[in-house]
Amino acid sequence: MSMQRSSAAVSAAGAVPVTLKFRIGIDEAHHTYLDSGRIAEEEGCAAVGLHARTAAQLYDGQARWDAVARLKQAVTAIPVLGNGDVWEAEDALRMMRATGCDGVIVGRGCLGRPWLFRDLADVFEGRVPSNPPDLGGVVDVMVEHARLLAAWLGESGAMRAFRKHSSWYTKGFRGGAPLRERLMHVTTVAELESILAGVERAQPFPPDAMRVSRGKTAGTQTVALPAGYLDDLEDATPPGIDAETAESGG
């Protein structure tokens, strides 16, 4: 984000805090996170968050927490939040201890694992987090999730959107593959409940599933940018309206 755009966003927001989240940079040749943090700090943002991968990496490899530490050293007037590879509550504590960051942002780690936030509250209060739920507990969360999503989006759209969540919720459980195959075709909440009524509710949560990657896991990509975007790195002019087209990379 250019300095002008950051300043305009903060001014327009008034009393509403503006935060800025960014990645390390475009690719290994173009690291921009320290400049982004400096600009956000100077222009009045309330906090910054760093996903410690480049845009080219997508979600490939391990997040580079050392970059979070460098950003924290460079940005001192506002909170710095770290993001990347927080799969369990203890990961958040490890990140904060290793980097000195002020807090964490949870992304893919909560997909199919919404109780992660309960666990985070526990560890930040010095409590040992509870064990994850058995399959019956997971099913109950799934049904509640689906009902709330249907109330928000309407049942048809909600159940299409929920299919990927079904996969994340059931990953690693015994018999999960055929169950997921059935769940990929549900069209109503009632159908979802009917399928889930037949699961082995007492089946314990599989430990190996705790750190299974969820969400986007594809390899690296070539980042598409508007024509001439990198010709002058000091040019603060924001991309024009054409950058909003799907093929522009803007």
Amino- and carboxy-terminal Cα gap: 12 Å
- Determine the structural class based on helices, strands and strand pairing: alpha/beta
Contiguous runs where pLDDT drops below 50 for at least 5 residues: none
Shape: globular
Portion in beta strands? 5-15%
| Helix count, DSSP H or I runs of 4 or more residues | 9
Q: In percent, how helical is the residue content?
A: 40-55%
Provide the gyration radius in Å.
21 Å
Q: Mean of the pLDDT scores?
A: 90
Order of helices and strands: HEEEHEHEHEHHHHH
Tell me the strand order in the biggest sheet.
1-4-5-6
Strand count: 6
Q: How can the largest sheet be summarized? A: 4 strands, parallel
Can you give a write-up of this model?
With 250 residues, this protein is α/β, with parallel strands linked by helices. The chain has helices at residues 3-13, 33-42, 65-74, 89-99, 116-124, 135-153, 155-170, 176-183, 189-196, and strands at residues 19-23, 25-27, 30-31, 47-51, 80-83, 103-105. The model has no long low-confidence stretch (mean pLDDT 90).
